[in-house]
Amino acid sequence: MFQHISKPSFIVSSRKEVQPFTTSRKSTMKVFPQGSSLGPVLWNIFINDLLNIDFGQNVKIQAFADDIMILIQAPATYCLTQLCKDPLDIIASWTKDHCLSINYEKSCFTILANKKYSHIPSIKISSQKFKFSKTIKYLGIFIDARLNWDYHLNQLQDKIHSIQQKFNRVTRATWGLSPTVKKEIYLKVIDRIISYGHEIWYQDRVKQNLKLIKLQRSGLICITKCYRTVATDTLQVLAGIPPIDIKTALTKRLFHLKYEQKELHVHDITIQPQELAFKKALVPHGLRFLSHGTISICHSTAH
């Protein structure tokens, strides 16, 4: 769509911020006014030129708002310094032409490799060196070098623990909010924080599932007001909340089923993408079969 929109040259050089209640005018030489109605549209028009540049076969660029990520494939780490030079020079030239600047404090690079590496390349843009980090945070998800997502789950555990401590200030076993209210808060806040981006990082491993169940358990104890020695399965039944590992595995499979058109295998049953109709977002209660059959997430069975 943005390819058919012409971009006048005076938009960059003559941007002004106009206050509706005053007669004064203020020139804005950098970025877009925060909170403006046309800000997101203008930014999409500007960055569309950058995303359409052909950087080569082994280079891919993507962006979400003003967060830009560049993926470069190389046979060895010592090749990255040279392979990154041309794409970064193009980006530096693009930002200069559009009167934009790069936030070097928030910019970094990492190396995704299965094997250990001893050489860390020097990545620069406009003579400014990027810092190296073993993990990077992109759109709320921590990406580590091995892509095992252990660091993301550890950070998630610290965040949930902090939220749970604040939650315990307003409710206890003998006083505070009712179980119905606490369950609603858990489903709307804690559960969504835990499952955010699980379509990317969830791998259905035993170690991951144990960490997820541990995160869920603290919330279940708060909802049911049970002793800490009560089994997790019992807490899930009393609270009426399905196991988070089963729920996460199912929603991830539904995600791949809908967007990647992959088959869904449940026990000895194979479900084709055309056999399903998605009424809402990818949640269990928004799923139904066009043919005979149902899926029960509470019991993790299909029949």
Automatic annotation (TrEMBL):
Q: Biological process GO annotation list?
A: DNA biosynthetic process
Q: Which residues form the Reverse transcriptase domain?
A: 1-143
Any one Pfam family here would be RVT_1
Checking InterPro entries in the record gives: DNA/RNA_pol_sf, RT_dom
- Domain of life per record: Eukaryota
Q: Which residues form a coiled coil?
A: none
PROSITE patterns from the entry? RT_POL
Q: What is this protein called?
A: Reverse transcriptase domain-containing protein
Q: What is the lineage of its organism?
A: Eukaryota, Metazoa, Ecdysozoa, Arthropoda, Chelicerata
